[in-house]
Each structure stands twice: as structure tokens, then as C-alpha cells.
Amino acid sequence: MFEGFTLEELEVGGQRVRVRYAGSGPAVVLLHGHPRTHTTWYAVAPDLVAAGFAVVCPDLRGYGRSGKPATDADHTPYSKRAMAADVVGVMDALGHDRFAVVGHDRGSYVAYRTALDHPDRVSKLVVMDGVPVVEALERCDARFAAEWWHWWFFAQQDKPAERVICADPETWYNAWTTNSPAALGPGNHADFLAAIRDPATVHAMVEDYRAGLGIDRRNDVADRDNGRRIECPTLALWSTDDDLEQLYGDVVAVWRPWCREVQGHGIKSTHHIAERNPADLLRSLHAFL
Question: Is 32 assigned a catalytic role?
């Protein structure tokens, strides 16, 4: 995987961030989702480098081998604002003043928060399989609660989700069925497996969700109330074999009040587009970036 890429750990704002990068030209940072690491982009990142981009793939805070800070009552260290600051710090360290941000799943929340908090740094934004946190919560209905039940399960702390997951993480995360080596690719699967077997990583990933239901929602509400919008061109992508369209109908319409300029379309795939249909994803990224 990632032939020609540099892999290192950077100290950013007092946090350790594992990052893989290569290439020259316009910068693009790729942000993974749950429960993946940066290696989810193994079939995408090299193609973007070959096309003339400088590509940066970090592990999000708490995920993979990046740092896992102690949490607090508001789960602030795992807020998307804190993760967005990590992204900017990584790009500073690598010498990129302006960059595009592509985020999938939980990474999409970090991506749009980066664009909202650092509009002078983000040139273009791609959000995949996600809508703003507050939109998901305010539109929540019985179907969402039934299909996305893990949001509420992860939020519990009196009987913490970590105890259940860590009892058998490979079964919980379908490591030998839908998330098998054949589905993820052997190297990507090995990195994923190492992450989910680490109780500290499981705890940090759950903290990401706890922050989502609290501080991230409050930050979204504050931005909306203050009229802040994403200033850069935005592309919304979603997996047609997942449930985003079923939950929200016109996904682009959900994003429109948040963006100065937004377009979007579905891609034939199940949830992890970068692994399941990298060819069509790359066509969309090339056209937009």
C-alpha cells in the first residue's frame, strides 16, 4: 500500500498524529470514518498523487495510531473542532497554506468543521455519507433511531459501550465477514484490525460519538444562529446502497443552507465508498478538485 508515501507521526498542538503523505501540487487531505484509519484511502490516494496532487492522509484524533487524549465531562477533546485544529496543524507542519478537504462518515464532520472554522485555509470541501450533525439529530425519526441506534448506545456511560465492544471487537466490527481482508484489502484490514483490538482506540472512537451528541451539536447550532456558512465550493457524495437518501431525500438540499455553493450526487456503493468503488469516487474527485 501507498508506494512512495512517507509515513510518520507528527506532534501537532501537543497531540500525536500519524500521517501518510506524498506528491506535489494542490494539496488534498483525506479524512477517514469510523472505525477505519487513514489506510481506508489506499486505492484512492496514490491515484490522486499521480494526477498531480499533494495528498495527506492522517489518522483522526483517537483513531488508529494517533493520540488519544484524556476526555472531560463535555468530551471536548474529541469535538470536531479539536479534530479540525489537528488537520490544520498537520497541514501547517507539511507546509500547505491552502488545501481541499475530503471527509467520509465521521471524517465528513471533521471536514466541514475545518471549512467552517478555517475558511481562509480550505479551498474545496467534499463530504461523503454525512449531513451536518445538528441536521441529523433534528431530523431524527423512528427509522433513524432504529438504523443508527449505535449513536445512542455509544452515548451511554453508566453501562459503557466500550465493555461490550472490547469483549469481542472482531465480531462487533465484522472483521471476518463484511469487513474481511478480501473486502478491505489485506494491508488496510491489518491496520483496521490493530485499531479495533486496542481498548484505548475503542474508547476514543466512542468519545467521538459522545462529542457528536453534545458539543458538536452545540457548535453547529451556534454557527447556524450566527449565519456562518461554508464559503468554499462543496461537493456532497453518498453511497446509493446505504441509507442517506432514504433518510433525507434530497441530500444536497440538506447541505444547501450551510454552503455558499454546493453540488452532489450518489455513487453506486455500500457505505465505504473508497474501498468498495474507488474508480467512481476518483472520477468524482478528479472532476471537482
Answer: no
